[in-house]
Structure formats: C-alpha cells, structure tokens
Design brief:
The structure is a single chain. Helix content is 32%, strand content 24%. It is of the alpha+beta class. The chain has 3 domains: 6-55 and 112-226 and 269-288, no CATH class; 291-410, Alpha-Beta Plaits, CATH 3.30.70; 414-523, 2-Layer Sandwich (Alpha-Beta Plaits), CATH 3.30.70.3190. The relative contact order is 0.10. One of its GO terms (biological process) is tRNA pseudouridine synthesis.
Amino acid sequence: MSSLTEKDRPVVQLLLNTGTCPRCVLRFCCVGSPMLYRHPHKDLMKDLQEFLKNSQQEEDTVCLDVADPPCKRIRLEHSEEGADDMNHNGAILQIPSADDGSAAMEGSPGKVCNVCLGILQEFCEADFVKKICEKVNSADYQFTSFVFSVSLPPQLSVRERAAWLGLKQEMRNLGLPLAKDDIVQLKEAYKWIIHPQLSEELGVPADGKSLFEVSVVFAHPETDEECHFLATACPDCFKPAKNKQSVFTRMAVIKALEKIKEEDFLKHFPCPPSSPKNPCDALEIQCNNGAVFVAGRYNKYSRNLPQTPWIIDGERKLESSVEELISEHLMAEFKADSFNFSSSGREDVDVRTLGNGRPFAIELVNPRRIHFTVEEMKRLQQAINDSSDKIQVRDLQLVTREAIGHMKEGEEEKTKTYSALIWTDKAIQREDIAFLDDIKELKLDQKTPLRVLHRRPLAVRCRVIHTMKSEYIDEHHFRLHLKTQAGTYIKEFVHGDFGRTKPNIGSLLNRTADILELDVESVDVDWPPTLAD
C-alpha cells in the first residue's frame, strides 16, 4: 500500500499553496507508486483536497489503494546545515486552514507548476501522447519495442532545489520535522505516466534494452535567466562548448548546485520557486533506430577502383569506389541515414582482390527497415552483383556489432596470399630466381612507405614473408606468389622503396626490380561465416 500520512499534511498544503502541481506534490511526499501518478490531474487534485479536509482525529492515514513497487529517487538534501528562517522575500509562510487551501487550489486549475514547469501536467495528457505517436508512425520505422527518453530544461534542477529548501525552512519555522527522504525523480514519474500510454498507442511494449528510441526534448525560454546566478557563484562549472548553444547544460547546472552554499542559493533564488511566466515547450520529438550491421566478402576485378572514395584536396579522382558500389544498395533497402564502411585491410586502387574475397562490414546508421529474411538478403546481394562488373559480393548477411571484432582481429594476426608480376632491369634465368622458393619465414624491417606517409605515422614495422614461389616468364619478367603476415607492404618488398624495406627482392637478386601488377589471392580470415548458395 502507498499512503499519505499525517506527517505529509503540511508538505501537501505548503506545496499546493505555492503553485505546485499534484504529481510534484506526490514526488515530494516520496510516493513511489507508478499507478497513482497515472490518475487524471483533476482526480489527484480532488484526492489531495480530501486528504487535507480529513480530520486528524478520524484517521491518521489516508490510503490510496494502488500497488507500491520500489522507485528510483534522487537526493536533494545535500547539507545538514540550516538556512535563514525567512524565504527569499523575507516573509514566513503560514499553513492555511484546509478550507483556505481548497479554495486556493480550486481557483487556479490552469496554473503552470512552479516545479516541473508543466511537464507533469499538459505533457502527460492523451493529446500530447498522440502527437508523439503521430511523429513515430509518420517516420515509418520497423520496431517491435521502444525505449523512451526525455531531455528536460536544466533549470528544473534549480526549481526542485528551491522547492525543497522552501519546504525545509517553513517546516522548521512551524516546529515540524521534515524527514530527509528522497524525492521521486521527475523523469521517472514522467515515464511512469507516459510508458503505458505510448505502449497502447504504438501497440508494442516499452523495453529499456530496445534499439528503437523515442525521445522528447523539452526547452524553456527562461533557462538562461533562471540559471544565471549559478554562473556568478560557480563560474568554473560553466565553460563554453563548441556544440552547445548555452553554457547552462544539465550536467553543468547539477555540478554548480552541488558546489553552491545553501545560504547563497537562498539569497539569489526564491524559495519556494515563483510561478513561471511560461510552460515548457516540446522542442523536438525524435525517433532513432539502433545501427544494423551487414557483413560479407567482396572481390574487386578492376585496377582503376579505390576501396573508398579517392578525394585529394577536395577534388574527386575517380568516379566510384568499392564502398559506394556496395553501400548505395544497402542504404536504399535499409532506408538508413548514413553508413560506416570497414574491412579486413585494404588494397590499392590498382590492385585486384580475387579468391574468396576480402571481409567487410557496413554499419547502417538509424535504419528505418531492420528485418530481412535470408532470401531477401540473397536478392540484395544479387542486385549489388548485377549493378557492376567491377566488384562481386558473397556471403552477405546481418551480423552483430560484437561479431565485427573477428574481422578486425584478422587485420594484423592472420596471413594473406598475393601474386605479383615483377620486372628486373638485368636479364634473369630460371635458376636466378629458384632460390626464392626455398626461403621461409623471411623477416623484414619496413619503414613507413613514402606513398602512405601522409596518412600513417613514421615507424619501422617488422613483418614476415612466410613462403614464396616463383614462376619464370621471360628474361625480364617473373611472377611471385607470396604468403605473408597481414600488414606487409608487398610493393615495397619488391622494389625496396629507396632502401626503406630491407631485405627486398631487388637486394636478394642483386639487381633493380619493380612490380607491374599485384593481386590479393586470399585473406585468411574465417569471417563472416560462409553461406550456402
């Protein structure tokens, strides 16, 4: 059972007479029953009026018959010290009689709450809930549950503190005790009211672990004005941020409230808080789906196609890329806002990727569509393959964020197989290159290549050529098949990069060598799983 007791009577009366709404009154009385907050505003006001009218001799407890689960709460009482006996205006409030209190309450039904600024009033009504649901439905998302989040104006923390301090000093003036209990968080009370209404309208349950988020951002025109005194008292708490329109963020205000002395707060802000000029505004109603991840393997058959868009000094060098040829189809089908492409290593623009392909993953940000059958994924893969002869995709599938870690592990830990067409300045015979086949586990020292020095830090990296197999073509050409440690720069291993890679094919053959063509024949990463055709 959740109940209001005689000790709550002066709290209820003081708050109602200073312009506090019924739900905020319940919060300050530490009522932790979600069902009670869902009662209509008018009914709650009547219940509180009846509570005040009841004779203390008849019954010392008025019970409201609802369930009483545990609740989350926030502690506002930070100090053991007392404050001035007078409120901000220098007057001591007297507890009016029950009759006077009822008359005052009935006279201002549309008044904006001086603590929640209307959050627990009009924004809990069915009309606002329908407005949220209309926004969600018009956005055309796929979802089977939702999580609801709310952003509140920072000065609500200030007003809550002011209401508490006002209560504290008035109760002390009357010689009545005020328990140092915790009040129910405004956000928590608001969600208690909103969740069942949204669930009913949307037809899906609220779930704290849901990937589909419905959020409401509330704002108030007097935020800066009401928080300004905190910046004077605690200037180190408020520092301009690039992406923030105001220094008065929620965290900054909370930090300042923790630092400011009680007597300083009472000097600069009315306690209890005065009635606001305006209610809050619902600035934004937003929807967002958690990212979806798609993985697969790609083959690249063109020697004129970069993996990602090739842009230098703002100028695009080539018209397309592997990333774009794959992602444009995924973006259209998943109806996502944006994407992030990653892969197990990368090949140069003039390097082909053959064999079973290179593993890749694409993060689709805020997708509207998230459910795809195996057959639908196969059709999507076919559409990508039919759109270009430069690439082919296989094993296209939905994966989890965690699974992508398997791909990234392979970048440095696994092996890769290459085929290089090599030219030499001096004539060679078969026996001149045959010894390369016998070299095993050749260790290299590779200083960052000149061609990538603009985007990679200067360092000497130790890499290993596990095996080599030569294939003689003519006096100046041969093909070399290599199995190497992932991350080995093959082009530099061939020509030496002006001595930055040691040893190299040129130094091993004692002549100048250069690479004419390079193919990636396999990327030995066992991910993503192979799918049946």
